[in-house]
Amino acid sequence: MKRLQKFLIIFFIPFIIFFSSNNTCYSKDLIQNFKTGKINWTTGVVIAWGNGYASKEITDVRLARELAKKEAILDARRNLIKIIKSVRLDSKVSIEDIVKNWDITEDNIKRTTYDSKVKTDFLPDNRAKATVELKIYGKLADSVYFFSPEKEEKKSDKTMLSFSRGKSEETFERKKEKEFLTKESKTGKEESLYSGIIIDARNLEAEPALFPKIFNEREELIYSYTKVEYPYVMEQGMVKYERDLKNAQKDVRVKPRPLVIRAIGVRGEGKTDIVINDGDAKKLMNEEKTGGFLKQGKVVILLDK
Question: 254 exposed, middle or buried (CB, 10 Å; 0-12, 13-18, 19+)?
């Protein structure tokens, strides 16, 4: 009997470890998969793969492999651009829509791909494989920021936009310095009960986007990219996507006391805009007056796919 128990334990342990670890990896981040890559919306990274083959006509083996690696990198970057084009700005517009109408946008996107992290491997089948990785936010988001439709754009936002081209890093540093000084000078001000917001939009077929919007039941705009300070949009994005509520509550973006709101629907063709009820919207705006967490993009949205 003891031998049988020992055999069963030894036999099933590898399966238990495999499925538990595999399950953890699968459920941790919100990942959008493609044939030649993926978008990790939780970490804000686009990844693409490419292949290159060593020519048998080249007698120098080292040269043939190096050329194959370069070919693989070019292929991976082409695939990266294809994946980037599929990204939605909001429920109305995708990056591909912009590229079709503005040649300069495609040129900007191509330039950003040269900033991607590159890893190459040469495989036994005489094939080189390249993996390229690019942050969604930063230069990529900046290249399409101007094209996101917004009716309630403020003059202050337009002013910040005019300085963003070629000076995003300088603008970011100046903004952070001003915000720090402003926070230090404010004493005795009433603080919000919450440190951020989590919107649970699971089971609503909602989709991720670069610049999603949040509406109340009366279709009034509660949150959009113009309500977030430009440096925060560029550095971390206006929202972070998660799949698990516990992970979201521990996220540095919204902890230690996030306000959790349940979404009641989605809007738009792309299903990226979230709808919350009027009561929650009112509570959110009241807390924003003292907390200011919307301006800093302290928003996490839960999706289930």
Answer: buried
H or E stretch including 249? helix 245-250
| pLDDT digits 0-9 by tens, 34-89 | 999 999 999 999 999 999 998 888 888 889 899 999 999 999 999 999 999 999 99
CA distances from 97 to 44, 51, 110, 153 (A): 21, 28, 16, 21
Distance CA 268, CA 265 (A): 10
Going from N- to C-terminal start, the domains of the chain cover 28-142, 187-302
Question: CA Rg, the chain, in Å?
Answer: 23
Asked whether the CA dihedral 286, 290, 291, 292 is positive or negative, the reply is positive
Report d(CA 251, CA 20) in Å as an integer. 23
Task: Check: CB of residue 199 under 8 Å from CB of residue 208.
Answer: no
Place of tokens 């194959």: 68
As a whole number of angstroms, the distance between CA 87 and CA 141 comes to 11
